[in-house]
Amino acid sequence: MSSLSERGPAGLTLACDLARRGVAFRIVERDLMPNTASKAKGIQSRSLEVLDDLGAVDYVVRTGIADLPMWFHDEHGTTVEHPSITVPAKDSFHTPYPNLLWIGQFDVEHALRERLADFGGAVEWGVEALDLTQDEGGVTVTLRAPQGGRTAPYERGT
Q: What is the per-residue pLDDT across 56-84, written as a single tens digit (0 to 9) for each?
């Protein structure tokens, strides 16, 4: 069994892929609940293709905005609309998702957590990975959970 740290869409993407392949794992996050801040505001074509492959793209496509309008104030204080800053991918990319989607990272993470749940997985909230030791027999991760510290051994072949 592998232990993963959630910390955003990368860990959740890996967890979804492991889950759909039947690989045992645990995904832990030291925060007590999902983050509502966003370190990223857009998602590119290739990332959308990965989400599609995992079966997690529908929510992102429904929630994201492809044509984000821009508004500025001119020297008189009047609000003026400018063309969208979104530039579609070139036709030569051959992608079903040619537009960057403007969407908060927390929404992408939500879609991945929902898909992970479809596979029977879940993030363990409030659990922090403290240490990792490896020897010939496997790997042991020391975790701190609200109920106290514990180890999560992983042995090859399990």
A: 999 999 999 998 888 888 899 899 888 87
Output phi, psi for 59, to 5 deg.
-60, -40
Scored b (16 or more CB within 10 A) or e, 19-43 reads bbeeeeebbbbbeeeeeeeeeeebb
Is 134 strand, coil or helix?
strand
Distance CA 132, CA 70 (A): 47
Using alpha carbons only, give the angle 24, 25, 30 rounded to the nearest 5 degrees: 165
- pTM for the model: 0.82
> May I ask the CATH class of domain 2-155?
alpha beta
CA–CA dist 115, 108 (Å, integer): 11
For the chain, give every domain's residue range. 2-155
